[in-house]
Input
Amino acid sequence: MRIVCIGGGPAGLFFSIVMKTARPGAAITVFERNRPNDTFGWGVVFSDQTLGNIAAADPITYERIVAEFVHWDDIDIHYRGRTIRAGGQGFAGIARKKLLQILQERARELGVDLRFETEATEADKAGADVAVIADGANSAIRRAHAQTFGTTLQHGRNRYIWLGTHQRFDAFTFAFERTEHGWFQVHAYQFDADTGTVIVECREETWRAAGLDAASVDESLAFCERLFAPYLGGHGLMSNARHLANPWIGFVLVDNARWYDGNRVLIGDAAHTAHFSIGSGTKLALEDAIGLARALDRNPERERAFAEYEAERRIEVLRLQNAARNSTEWFENVARYASLEPEQFAYSLLTRSQRLGHDNLRLRDRAYVDSLEAWLARSAGAERPVPPMFTPLRLRALELRNRVVVSPMAMYSCVDGTPNDFYLVHLGARAQGGAGLVFTEMTCVAPDARISPGCAGMYRAEHVAGWTRIVDFVHAYTDAKIALQLGHAGPKGSTQRGWEEPDEPLRDGNWPLLGPSPIAFGERNQIPRAMTRDDMDRVKAQFVRAAEMGAACGFDLLELHCAHGYLLSSFITPLTNQRTDAYGGTLENCLRYPLEVFAALRAVWPAHLPMSVRISATDWVPGGITPDDALVVARAFHDAGADLIDVSAGQTSRAARPVYGRMFQTPFSDAIRNELGIATMAVGNITDADMVNGIIASGRADLVALARPHLADPYFTLHAAAQLGYDEQRWPNPYLPGREQLLRTLRRTAALAEVTQ
Output
């Protein structure tokens, strides 16, 4: 097998090592345009997982790398004159130049042909059985074949400069300084006995305002030395990028729809990038190298090997890119978090990628988490430290015992809109399960406002009686509060139940639909009639009547559903609102009718009780609502009197392409809460108590709504309290023997785990 590797960075070199180890007879040539010791970075950070993968792939390389490591355990966060330290992080660093030297030496030992200051010719590439494209994020070969690979490039909002210093850091160091131009931040760490990496980062507009877009290398160094002098111990900063006209660069997120074509295959930064703030670039490069080499060794057929490599690696890459996206957004929006106290600012930073959870932080440094929980409890008015999810919350006169919410979930089980015994048991059980707040499903304000014939309503006297029975049960037998969510299905109405063909029209018995414009939700859905002013007045009156009925039932909170493509949501998004009157066009106009409805509800809903609004923070469709638009939408409802924004996303168009992942909608809640100072509720793939604790502790939301977890476990909150050792969560008196048995079981399980460790 003849292999040509384009690029002599970590990806290309380690691939040649692993491949040559597996196939000693393979002829492998590495072409690198730069000299052997040229490098434009400083240090490289490794995790234990990556080191384990290296050790399994080539123990000799592993031993040589480990011998050069600098280890540290702590993270220091310098912010507003405070230093907060979190331990147990377990980092290891090495000079990038040293890493390259180790890889070069090992490759030569194995017989790899290394050619520096040499460009591969077309004949070299074409004549190889495999051409490994490992020439980095700016890969010339990938650019030349961008259409074939399906390359997309997304530019970040920040500029950064990668520097060195002889200051010794005894912890991974983050430092934040506010200037007249905006925020600057430092990422710094030690990577050998006397040298450390210092990355200075800021927003593009801040960089320009400070005049750094026109600064020389020396001028940039001087600026950074002055700004971050308190953390440099009198040492200067060094640059190895003097070949650049301006040493400040921007991060580019590289993605490729396809990683191989013919004999060419992409690895490392040529295939994908992930922001440096999660230290994953070298990790991904080395693990790509391992994955490709093993796939080629397993499969004599090149096409199959490439396909296996891509399928195996793409999952891990997407996982890390999602985490890196969250981390990138955090550092691009430091000003968003400037109002947080240092304790919460530091926690938000530590958990920014959403990979590191509350329990994991506690395992790493119990004292740090205990101090954070004590501060958080004091801030929330709790009498003693408690897990974040059990801190109380007050909205107007409503007091919630904890931050767990049973999310609105359509059950499709009403008859003519009337909640029956199923709803009493369903909502009653979840209220008994310990959640602070329980929501009804979207309760529709008229028969033709329903999603399906099985949906709940609030437009007949029977509905008031049915809901009052449920509300009275919740208030009499639990500590939970109960909220009414009102909505109108609009263009998504007259559809089948969720377990049939969701969002598709009824097989018979359909009713006419309304919408802002005559645009159907899907090919099979009806085209709604564009609403007239009379229609708007009639529907608004239906909402008002339903709110008055809800108040008579004794609900504690009222939510207006303006998300997921239902009627009011369909006014907000330009995907379905193409009106040319005062209710269409600009976002301000598109919001006009939903705000009219909200104002009418606020006028009749008791002033001492809160109201919330559910919004879709993005349509995930080009030309639709964006996260920046969501800030405008949230502010408008808050200014109109909303006490809480329930932040969901999508479901407004069949063309949506959501970016899924753990807590994938929480960043939208984070932005609204911390940009605007508005209370929010987070929802979306939040599955356990650890996630809830992390969201609340970091200030990403004030409440956390869980849907599917509460379907699987109505007693989610009671079980979480037992597992966390929180004794003040009230259980129904008849269930106390079950609580004691659960606690005994948990204690036995913990004791057994200690014995087996």
Remarks:
- Residues 302-332 form the longest helix (31 residues).
- The chain is about 40% helix and 20% strand.
